[in-house]
Amino acid sequence: MDESNLAVGGIRRNLKLKGATGPLRFGSDALDKPDLTVGKCKRGAVLTMDALFALALLLISMTFVLMLLTRYAPYQAPGAGSATDMMDALRTLELQDLDDNPRYPYANMTLHEGTTSPYNATLIEAIADLYMGNNTTGAWNLADEVVGWAVPNDFGVELLIENGTSGKDCSNATSNFSCIYSATRGARRNFASAGRHFIYYNNVTREVRLVLYK
């Protein structure tokens, strides 16, 4: 037996002892090729977890959006959506718009008795005219009639006018704004919204401010 046969037989015996079952291969085919099966499984598992995580986020986002879209808005009295909306109504409506309306008897009396200047035709101008003319009771009554009824029961309201000098606001604190009208409802006093309008009285521009509290 030549040496080459002995060498081949030795290699076969060694492979058999190590558990090799296939035929002996030489050359490039004899090199062990990496087994990518495990790596493919790991990548597949990672991709699956990412997809599930993205799907969960999408479902959570859709649920949140649906909750916002289906949330019921709280009831608000007409004109009381905000202080700005109320002030817009006060500076747009005129006393004559309420003429012969039984809901507004004091506004009708103010209109027909001519207790305000004909140039101050809007509601906010009439209220300010009464107040600045020292008819504070008349200003309070008119404000209560056109503002008080429009404010929900769980809201507080204040109507103030810039006085140009030191005065008292609706909480009786020293301020540059004087209290025309106020209605306190409930123990809490948290600011909700504010609206303002500027009027011209006695050659002076003054700010009138409407504040809502919750």
Descriptive account of the structure:
The chain has helices spanning 3-17, 37-69, 83-92, 105-113, 123-132, 136-146; strands at 156-168, 174-183, 191-201, 204-213. The protein is an alpha+beta fold. The chain folds into two domains: 3-67, no CATH class; 83-213, no CATH class. The chain has a four-stranded antiparallel sheet. It is elongated.
User: What structural class do helix, strand and pairing data support?
Assistant: alpha+beta
Range of helix content: 40-55%
How far apart the termini lie comes to: 109 Å
pLDDT averaged over residues: 75
Radius of gyration: 42 Å
What's the number of extended β-strand segments?
4
Query: Low-confidence runs (pLDDT<50, min 5 residues)?
Result: 1-31, 68-80
DSSP strand (E) fraction?
Answer: 15-25%
Salient structural properties:
21% strand, alpha+beta, 214 residues, disordered N terminus, 4 strands, 6 helices, four-stranded antiparallel sheet, 2 domains, elongated
